[in-house]
Amino acid sequence: AGSRTSGPWLSLAAAAGGAAAAFLAARQLRRQAAHTSCVVVVPGGGLTLEGRPPPWVHRRLQEAASIYKARRSAGEACFIVTLSAGTPHKPMPIDPKSKFQVFEAEGTARSLIHDFTVPAEHIFEENWSLDTIGNAYLLRTMHTDVAGWRKLIVVNNAFHMERTRVVFEKVFSLRPLPASGPYELGFVEVPDDGLEGEVLASRREREAKSVAGFRKNVATMATLRELHAFLFGEHAAYASRRLLREREPVDPKALQTY
């Protein structure tokens, strides 16, 4: 005769099944929440000698905080990600109190907290990249692919927006794309507060050359693996072969914008 499970064993099995179902449902809800979350992205734009955002970066942060608060007020899950360690064109600033170097993402996150009252738990930092392509690559590989964020709003100044758009659209289209689907990118342009005249003109000229160079270097790239090979094998900011040559000089006027 066959055996029949009954009594406490049946109750335990039912409880285990219920717990498993609840766990799977909760995980699915977390995935859906991540997929529908709005993430406001602030690329690196330089810091003052004291580790504070300069006027043009302050303007980015003002807009990012405004978007964040509007989305939160509407009941939407929203976060802010600040990007960049610094720039290869000049040393990182030193905090006058702690005497430690200040990463750009740290300086901008601090400003969001203290100047714009954004809760620290809603801010994520990427403290390693050194330029726009690194901003996009490390945002994707460190945060968005992992966290499941798909809807990004990138805030930047007018002088930097063309390169930002070209770079981010390329990097966030590279295969393999996340299982949950392609990225949705939006871009918000803000004025170039604090920049004008020859300084702004010099930076715009440099931006145009950078856009042309990026398009040439990544024209045939289709995968993140190819971009990884380029960044850490050839790029002047990340490849170790950079240590075999002198740093590229930057026009003093353009340098004021980094």
UniProtKB/TrEMBL annotation:
GO terms for cellular component: plasma membrane. The chain crosses the membrane at residues 6-26. Gene3D superfamilies: HUPs. It comes from the Eukaryota. The keyword Transmembrane helix applies. CDD domains: YdcF-like (cd06259). Residues 39-198 form the DUF218 domain. Keywords: Membrane, Transmembrane, Transmembrane helix. This is DUF218 domain-containing protein. The lineage of its organism: Eukaryota, Sar, Alveolata, Dinophyceae, Gonyaulacales.
